[in-house]
Specification:
single chain; alpha+beta; Heat Shock Protein 90; 6-stranded antiparallel β-sheet; 6 strands; 29% helix; 29% strand
Length: 145
C-alpha cells in the first residue's frame, strides 16, 4: 500500500494497526478495516466510514510531527468498537453544528449518525482515543468463530 505499516496485530476478536499520521495513513486505516470486517463477516459500509472519519480527524487535528496514530477494532458485548488513538491529548473533538457553507467539519456528525455510541477517552499523556461502537445483529461474533 505504499506506506510502511509500523505494527499490525490481530486475534479472533481484535485487530490493530499503527500507521503514519498522513492522508495516506488515514486511507490505509479504512482499507485495512474493510479487509478485517469482511474477514469477520461483518457489514463494512458504516464502520468503514466511521474509521475513515476518525482517522482523518486524527491526521488533521491530532497530528504531532513524527508520531503515528493507532486504529483498533474490537468485538465484544454484541458490538464492534472502533478506536482511533492519536498523540494530541489537548485537542479533544467536539460535535458541532456544521456550517452549511464550510467544506469540512462534518466528520463527527457522520460518526454520530452511524454509531450507536461514541466518545473520547484520555489515555496516558500524550494520548487520547476517540471511539465509536456499532451494535451488531450477530451479537458481535465473527463468522467462523
Amino acid at each position: 500500500m505504499g506506506d510502511v505499516t509500523t505494527q499490525i496485530w490481530c486475534s479472533a476478536h481484535q485487530f490493530g494497526v499503527q500507521l503514519p499520521a498522513t492522508p495516506r495513513g488515514a486511507r490505509q486505516a479504512r482499507q485495512l478495516a474493510v479487509e478485517k470486517l469482511r474477514a469477520w463477516g461483518l457489514p463494512t459500509d458504516g464502520p468503514a466510514l466511521i474509521v475513515a472519519e476518525l482517522a482523518a480527524n486524527a491526521v488533521t487535528h491530532g497530528r504531532v510531527a513524527g508520531r503515528d496514530f493507532l486504529v483498533v477494532l474490537s468485538l465484544g458485548g454484541g458490538a464492534l468498537r472502533i478506536e482511533v488513538v492519536d498523540t494530541c491529548r489537548d485537542r479533544v473533538p467536539i460535535l458541532r453544528e456544521p456550517d452549511a457553507r464550510a467544506e469540512g467539519g462534518r466528520g463527527l456528525a457522520v460518526v454520530e449518525a452511524l454509531a450507536d455510541r461514541w466518545g473520547v477517552e484520555q489515555g496516558p499523556p500524550p494520548r487520547k482515543a476517540v471511539w465509536a461502537e456499532v451494535d451488531l445483529p450477530t451479537g458481535g461474533t465473527p463468522a467462523g468463530s
